[in-house]
Amino acid sequence: MKKIIALILTLTLLLALTACGASGSTASTAETTQAATAADGKGTSIAADGSVITNYDKATVQTDKELPKFRILVLYNSFTDKLGSQYKSSMEYIAEPLNIDFTFLETGSSGDEAMAAIEAALVSGYDGCIGTVASEARAALFDKAGVPYVVCGGMPSDETQAKAMASYENYLGSVVVDDYAAGYAMAEALYADGCRNVMWDGLSRGYSGQHDARAAGFADGVASHDDMKLIVENWDYTQWADGIATAAATYPELDGVGCTCLMANIYNTIESEGLVGQVQLAGIDVSEGTGRAFENGSLSYIAGGNYACEQICFAVLYNYLLDGTRVIADPTVNLTLNNINLSSLEDYNNYIKYLDSAVPAYTAQEILDMTHYVDESFNAEKMTELCKAYSLEDVIARHADLVQ
Fold this sequence. Notes:
Layout: H1 2-19, E1 30-33, E2 43-46, E3 52-55, E4 70-76, H2 82-98, E5 100-106, H3 111-122, E6 128-131, H4 136-145, E7 149-152, H5 159-166, E8 171-177, H6 179-192, E9 197-201, H7 209-223, E10 229-234, H8 242-250, E11 256-259, H9 264-272, E12 280-284, H10 290-296, E13 299-304, H11 308-323, E14 335-337, E15 340-342, H12 345-355, H13 364-368, H14 380-389, H15 392-399
Parallel strand pairs: 4-5, 4-6, 6-7, 7-8, 8-14, 9-10, 9-11, 11-12, 12-13
Antiparallel strand pairs: 1-5, 2-3, 13-15
Helix pairs in contact: 4-5, 6-7, 12-15
C-alpha cells in the first residue's frame, strides 16, 4: 500500500511540475478547435475523470479592421492539468473573434518523440506556433519550416543559448513570469510574518531555469535580513510534502518554508502534522487548499495568474503575423510578466473572482488592442509596460464591469 501511495504522490508531483514551468516534451495527441467548448459553469473545475476544465464566456471584439485567418499550433505537456487547461481555454476564448484556427498538440517527457511529432504536424502548414521549450533545436526546427515561434514560460538556459536562438529569424522571443521576484517575495512575506528560520522546498538545480530563478530569489531575500537564516534545503520533488514534516521534527526552530511549487498535499501535510501556527508557507501556484490555508493562517504568500503568459505570447505572435511588428525588440532578452501576488484571504477571493472565472486575464478586445495593426502607437516599449503593470489590482480595474 505504501508503494502505491508513493507512486500516486510521484505522479501527482510530476503533473504539478508540468504546471510550474518544468515542462518536458513528447508527442501525444493533437486537437483542433475554433471555439471554447468547456463544461458547464465558469472558471476552472475538475471533471469526473480528474482532468481540469476551464470555461470562459464567449468573447467578442469591435474593430473596423479586417482580421485575416491564421492557423496556429499550440504546444504543451498536457492540456488537462490546471495550467494547461487555462492555456488552452484562453486561446479557445479568442479563436472565433480574432479568426484564429488553433491546433493543440500535447507533449510530455521525451524530447526526441516531441520533435518528431512537431515536424509531422508542421507538414500540415501553420502560420505560427506557441510552445514552452526554449532550445536552439526548437528554434532551428521552426525556422527551417518558416513558422514564427514564441516560447511561453520557458527561457534560454544562458546568454550563449539566448544568442544562438535569436540568430534564427523566426524565433520571436520568450515570455516569462518574474520567477526571481516571486522567490524574493516569498522570503519577504515569511519575514514579515515573523519567520526567522526557514526552509527551501525546490526542484533539482539545473532542471528548470524558472525554478532556479525562484530558488535564487528566495535565497537572496533571506540573505537580505541579518536575523533570517536558511537552515534546511530540499531539492527532491518527491519529498516536497513529507520533507517539511521531517524538517520540522529535526529542526524545532523551523518556522517558515518557501515552496517552488505549492501543491495541495503540502497544505495537507501542514494540517495533518499539526504544524498550523508553527510553520508558515509561501510559494507559487494557486491550487486546492490555498483558500483554506489563508483561512487558517498558515499561508503568508502565493504567486499565481501565470496563464496570462500564454495570452501575451499570442499577442507577440499576432503582432508579427498581422504586420511584421516585433513587440519583443531583442529576442535575447526575455519579456517578463509580473506574477499575481496574493497575501491574504481577500486577495485569494478576488483572484478566484477575477482570474479564475468567466473572463481570463485579458479579454479578446484587450489582446487585439495590443497590436500595432490596430493601434499604430503600440510597440515593444508599450508591451513591456503592459507586462509590468499586470497585477491583481490591474485586472480588477480592467474587468470590474465584466465580472459579477
